[in-house]
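Running log. JK asked me to keep both predictions on one page so they can be read side by side. First protein, sequence followed by its tokens:
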Amino acid sequence: MFPAVALLSLSFFAIAYGQQVGTLTAESHPKLSVQQCTSKNNCQTQQRSIVLDSNWRWLHSTSGSNNCYTGNTWDTSLCPDPTTCAKNCALDGADYAGTYGITTSGNALSLKFVTHGQYSTNIGSRVYLLDASDAKYQQFNLKNQEFTFDIDMSKLPCGLNGALYFVEMDADGGSSRFTANKAGAKYGTGYCDTQCPHDIKFINGEASLLSPTFTAFFDPNAGSGQYGSCCNEMDIWEANSMGAAVTPHVCSVQSQTRCSGNDCGDGDNRYGGICDKDGCDFNSWRMGDQTFLGPGKTVNTNTKFTVVTQFLTSNNQTSGTLSEIRRLYVQNGKVIANSKTAVAGMSAYDSITDAFCNAQKTAFGDTNSFEKLGGLQAMGASFDKGMTLVMSIWDDHDAKMLWLDSDYPLDKDASQPGVSRGPCAQSSGEPTDVESQSPDATVVFSNIKYGPIGSTY
């Protein structure tokens, strides 16, 4: 994710994240089938399920139903300090469809943007794929592999993001490393990404109660703690109907890591932290082809299509170093090659390599923290450890999603290389507008497949 605090917009009204397990609502994970392929036309269906991130869940006292957290404020009687809070507060099960607008059917997952429930209004959601045990996140190593899914984002306007990506979360949600975390992956704990988000309510088994390190917050329902939760992130797909990007981000640390102070890379210290917040993005519009993806374009976002992402290695083996990330599309039975860059000073790249990333950063005048923190080799090392699949829908209280679908940053001339990222107006993406005007916005991810290069489409 690109903005410094982009994920803040995901926080759920009056609901938060805890470590004990509540008993007031049964947790039943919606089923979602995926396919593992061994060769072309040879794929086996796996029955899996998804789990809601704990940041959205009801957090209440272990002895009753009093809220531990409301809006962006902790109940100080239940949560006088981080460790006591973890003991006093329980994380409960979720009504996926009724409260959160999350439904599955066979191999399809549908995420609705705004859901008006009996007791609350929910904005956005984030879910993870569980493995066959239904108690741990499925781990992926995609080196010398490809990952494929179908996407219908025809109902996602400017300012929204239907995202599918991988992060280096602990498979058990952190419960073995941090024994105060009793909920684990079954209740969606342990999130991290390269933005080192400060809105995670519990990090390392402790409530994030302490004073924030910065105050760049615009969402009244998202709080900020002193610590952030950092890890490597591979954004396969960040998109709405007007634009899309594929972006690897890397960190100098392995696995989920709690940051504080300068290590978080907050505010003016964006490029001084342990993670590369900008990443190395391939956005066709930003790379100079404004005809490639969008309504009625070569990849027509008015209808469903297939996204194929291939992770090539230096020796064409899973043991090799990650050297290239390639993208293909399939729509109406036609395989569509990725667009090529058309930017002054750059060759005609159509994939992500370290050479592409270096050329892009130079052409756009951007800080190259991706190279500094290890580039594609570091991304491959993260896959070696195992990464968790995340799917979400969200709006952006920090940068209005302009970094994905409009001009960004706004203090630069849109004619400068790299500033124009999509056709949406600079005034678009205001969360209050998006939430009121497009409450029924929905993204549907389906037909997930993974396997050797060339096996999934």
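And the second, directly underneath as requested:
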Amino acid sequence: MISRTLSTVAGVVFLGVCGVVSAEPVEAVLDNGMKIVVQRDERAPVAVSQLWYRVGSVDEVNGRTGLSHLLEHMMFKGTPTVPAGEFSRLIAQAGGKDNAFTSRDYTVYFQQLAADKLPLALKLEADRMHNLSFKDSDFTSELQVVKEERRMRTDDQPAGIMAETLFANAFVANPVRYPVIGWMDDLDHMKPDDLRQWYHHWYGPNNATLVVVGDVDPQAVIAEARRQFGPLKPVALPERRPQIEPEQKGERRVSVKAVSPLPSLTLAWQVPRLEKVDAQRPYALYMLSAILDGQAASRLPRRLVREQRVATEVSADYDMLGRGGALFSLSGVPAQGKALAQLEQALRQEMAHIARDGVSERELERVRLQLQAGRIYEKDSMFAQAMRIGNLESIGFSWRDDATIDANIAKVSAEQVRQAARSLVDDHLTVVTLLPQQGDKPRMPAMPQGDQTHVR
């Protein structure tokens, strides 16, 4: 028996049918350029609303880093009709929760609440898209919060220092080299008007995508979004000029010292991101990363940790989706009594084995099944569904490309994986080593540099 719920809020009808997920999203584009994508998921009477602004640290320039992240903080400082703190109070009063995060590619504001309360979230987001206001004193206090956030998550964390050092040295021109939270010196010299200008430059309906997933009627959501966001005027977006990274023509090495109980190592190669859905190399690199790491049976943990015992931790990483430069990286912590040079040699040997001998069809099929299972489990989460849609829409793809991307990953051959491994040459390599120093323990775990979540 399928249960149905019917609610009317602000003149909008939201119909929920528990137990059903619609075949595909429904989209609309408002006259002001704002895009709305709604995925109906009727398994629970709740909804996730995510407002994606296509602006992040890759849109910043040297001397003005950290603007996107700090503006995310300031967006909670209120409007003339919704004072500071009132946004979150109203969402909580309605039984929901809200937050935001900034990455290199975008800034996202989200709410999770009962489906019939969705109009409240849309009304509040439309208000602060156009009417944000903050005092200079609010800026000064929040800037101190962000500086402390940087100290705790980067300056006092070995992993944060390593990540920041890696991107700053692996790239010389592409803005992916800038930390999302910004360089401390840039934060020291930031002014309130810097944030106000950034807001007026980038925060407009024509630079935003609203993604809603939940127990809602898509047409009702689109109608409500049109009512709330439709009257807002588009903004004149700054010109985005390509900042193409010059070809790297030699291996780069850098060592950093930080308070840490153990040394660590990262090898990272400059590689392409996925720019067209029919590209081949990014898919092969993605599959190579999954073969090396991701499960206990993957090559790196199996061979380097359990068999050779040269490492206590190992990982491989490659994100093919984004607007900036990309790296394919191998990282690890040497086992007790093992030197960083031994770990580096072991990592290189594993890559050389694949480049020479390739991978078996059995191993490839196992990884395909693991990736397919992960994508299926992802659909159990409304938030994850919205993230996938918003991510694709914000980096230049469409949610319609999702199935094609998955299909292309599944079609990667063993020979393509071997060629991907062969393409990782030393001339495009950056090696970063962490040399541990004695001192006080770090204060809290580091957050990945590509995703700075607002903490309140």
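Observation for JK regarding the second prediction: DSSP finds 15 helices and 14 strands in the chain.
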